[in-house]
Prior knowledge:
Elements: H1 2-26, H2 28-39, E1 45-48, E2 57-60, H3 65-74, E3 88-92, H4 98-106, E4 111-116, H5 119-129, E5 135-142, E6 147-151, E7 163-166, E8 174-177, H6 179-185, E9 193-196, H7 202-208, E10 219-222, H8 227-237, E11 242-247, E12 250-255
Parallel strand pairs: 3-4, 3-9, 4-5, 5-8, 9-10
Antiparallel strand pairs: 1-2, 6-7, 6-8, 10-12, 11-12
Amino acid sequence: MHHDRWTSLRRRARPLIYVAGLARLLGFRQALSLALARTRRSNVPVALRVPGLSHPVYLRAGGTDLNCFWQIFGQRDCAIDLPRPPRAIVDGGAHLGFASIYFANRFPQATIIAVEPEAANYALARQNLAPYPNVHLVRGGIWCHDAWLAIKNPHADSWAFRVLEVAEHAEGSCQGHSIDSLLRRFGLDGAELVKLDIEGAEVEVFGRGSLRWLDRTEALVIELHGKRAESVVSQAMNALGLAHRRRGEKVIFVREQDRAPLGVPRLAQH
């Protein structure tokens, strides 16, 4: 009974902690302005000034964009230490470009490829990423091979779009890319850091696609969607010598140079 009461109290406290965290990150005035904009549930983009970033970040105050914003800049889901600055980064499932913005400010010398399949997200990501010449935004999806993809759940929240393979140039389709072909397109022989939030397509990428790109990858930041994805990714990573840990909703695999390949333990879904 005591445990249930404590759990209930923690759940009730989350919105207050969230608001307090936004106020600390953005300042009271900006957080208040954002809260008022959210009450209007408008899809008109608002600009947020985040300490440490060289340019404003745009998002739709009335939807779920703020949750994704908080994951990257508040919880710092993609914060990771590498032995050396990465030369190349892939941001698969870029949404509005928040992770790419974080990477571009932290690793300004890196070439960053950001990939987003949904048209409205892509348009706002283009606005967010325009000031960063080292970020190359691609309209498309990450897949196991080059193919044509379409959004299978067009009425989902903006962060939850899933793709499926369709006939070439089908209505509403976009190009799907394997990670290997993306790297070749930009003249890269690998990417030391890969972030994937591709809403279940990790089953295709790790289950059916070539994983040659992982040979040069030092760290993988991935959000896993369901037990099947956990199993497929764990099997694929099993022999690569990457240790894993959780950060927020992401699982981070990091190559440990001085250790032999290790088995990846079963990942608990939260």
